[in-house]
Amino acid sequence: MGTVLDSHFLALTAIVTVGYQLMFFIVTALLKIDKVTDFAGSTNFVILAVLTLIVKGTWHFRQVVLSLLVTVWGLRLAIFLLMRILQWGEDRRFDEIRINLRRLAVFWTFQAVWVWTVSVPVTVVNASDRNPSIQAEDIIGWIMWSVGISIEATADQQKLAFKNSPENRGKWCNVGLWKYSRHPNYFGEIFLWWGVFLASTPVLEGAEWLVILGPIFLTLLLLFLSGIPLLEESADKKYGNVSAYRMYKSSTSPLIPLPTTVYRNLPSWFKTIFLFEFPLYSRNLPQEPQIW
């Protein structure tokens, strides 16, 4: 169907993303609600994948598969998060910025950057004229996506069921996958997007390899900014003085699922370098009283 704005659809997807997020930002700002925030982010991925696939019109097998994977992930996450927020009634992440227009605008701008950047591997694949035969990278990438979304969806459902049980009120989730990772849903999300990137590599040439910035951006975002640090801070403030929670935190991997008996006995340097147990995840943990 021809080129739209640029041969890699980067300008097209940027314009669509900004417009879509701006629309929801206006709704949020006017109505002072946060029920559509996660829905807007997740569905934006779907729109970009489907749009670039249709606009290019070549329908290569790799393009169709990657677009389908992103669509399944985006719709699953959008529906889950929308139903959760409708059930819970509020998103505490936005308590401090809901009524602050400037901070709200910064958040929505950042969300637009997140969507566009992480979508870039699929955008470039869908814009490409190259169509090499299916390779090992494709298969491994699709398997990684399957494992990642299974972990993410399972962890989400386990935590939702735990939180909805009255007997667990005021407790932290430590059941199912949450026994082996403090954030298994984030592990699943990171893993599946690295799988999407890997499955895109057979068509990449030259500067197109910069699409690796997509999964790198997502990984850094969840490790250092809006993901794990915020949740660790919140949990430490709530449960930091509970000895059972401190034991859970010291024996449970922050991201990569591992048996607690294994993780507990690993040296601190190994945990920091290879398992992402960074000091910033415990900076709000109350100090244990010294016994003299």
UniProtKB/TrEMBL annotation:
GO cellular component terms listed in the entry, alphabetical order: membrane
Gene3D superfamilies from the UniProt entry: 1.20.120.1630
Pfam family, one: DUF1295
Membrane spanning residue stretches: 12-31, 43-59, 65-83, 104-127, 186-204, 210-231
Keywords from the UniProt entry: Membrane, Transmembrane, Transmembrane helix
Protein name, UniProt field: Steroid 5-alpha reductase C-terminal domain-containing protein
Species of the source: Turnera subulata
